[in-house]
Amino acid sequence: MASPTYDIAILGSGPVGCALALGLADAAPDPARIVLMGPAPAPRAAGQAIDPRALALNHGSRRFLESLGAWPEHTADILTVHVSQAGHLGRTLIDQAELGVPRLGCVAAYDDLLETLYAAVRRTGITLLAERPPRPRAGAPVRLHLSDGPRSAHLALLSDGARPQGLQREYDQHAVLATVRAAAPWPGRAFERFTRTGPLALLPHPAAPDLYSLVWCVPPARAQALRHLPHADFDTALQAAFGHRLGRLQRVGEAYAFPLSLHAGPNLLGQGLAAVGNAAQTLHPVAGQGLNLGLRDAAQLAQALRPWLAAPGEPVQPLLERHTRRRRADRALTLGITDTLPRLFATANPLVRHACGLGLAALDLVPALRKPLARHLLQGQRL
């Protein structure tokens, strides 16, 4: 039988796919036998407006990306996170000093992160195919039908472009994304405020110390209305929802809206097929865990495959099965947190809402309750 075209095909060139490619290339005798399929980042024009898409990368993700030589130049530190509930007493503060780390995380512009990752991939010698990833056919080898003919690989890893099949939930919420300027910025502090319509997050923006990245979860009709409001009316609505902790808030540039849903499927898809990142799960953006979970997928899968990369003729399926078992607890806990919080705090039941306020107060007063949750949000489970 002819040798497969590639040892590993990574289907999807987003941040998780690029990080996975870099992690694998570090251990590969011949990185050219790893192929990354997907479009290259689109070039940005000089003076382009500030992109509202900003990503919260936790402490564990930063360490992983730095180890790959792919940490973006411009980021904003998150030193504390203030969590509150609109209309109710009780809040909690998560602080980096309590957890013994220099920062809880950082915020990076999506385009900056992707460009930095893709530039690092280019330096490795990995094969790049700038076309839409095909739907692979499981087997030994995996079959790939590309635009110029068939290819094959020992192993195909889906990182994005294919929605996972399995658990599904529609939240009846859209995320409104925008960049806002604060009259009284609080350096290093991020805010997560739970409202009756969904969570509202303000994250330090890497473009300037008085800018924040807004993620505002509201019902779909409200999201579309907010998008088209004049700036002054948008600012008034945001101020009413968030309060005055940062002084006057003013939107900078356009607002965008994206539907929110949960989709989660298996990591192991068949013989020689595995999924990570958005191909394995898409989460509600509360607490900013989606990309961080995907990067943990990539880091641990790259580590699991290191022995096989040295001898790709050996069976790879046992390694994939072991990796899937090891990822199960981290995925389940992260999915549970991000699925429960937005539904729990958005309930119309006043008793539950009061209980949520008491829960925030308890977290703030009792470190033994707060620290385990904070540490999971900081780095997840890295077994």
TrEMBL record:
Q: Which cofactor does it need?
A: FAD
- Show the Pfam families listed in the entry: FAD_binding_3
SUPFAM superfamilies in UniProt: FAD/NAD(P)-binding domain
Q: Where's the FAD-binding domain?
A: 276-328
Q: Which InterPro entries match?
A: FAD-bd, FAD/NAD-bd_sf, Ubi_Hdrlase_CS, UbiH/COQ6, UbiH/COQ6_monooxygenase
The biological pathway it contributes to is:
Cofactor biosynthesis; ubiquinone biosynthesis
Q: Which UniProt keywords apply?
A: FAD, Flavoprotein, Monooxygenase, Oxidoreductase, Ubiquinone
Query: Into which family does the record put it?
Result: Belongs to the UbiH/COQ6 family.
Its protein name is UbiH/UbiF/VisC/COQ6 family ubiquinone biosynthesis hydroxylase
Give the source species.
Castellaniella ginsengisoli
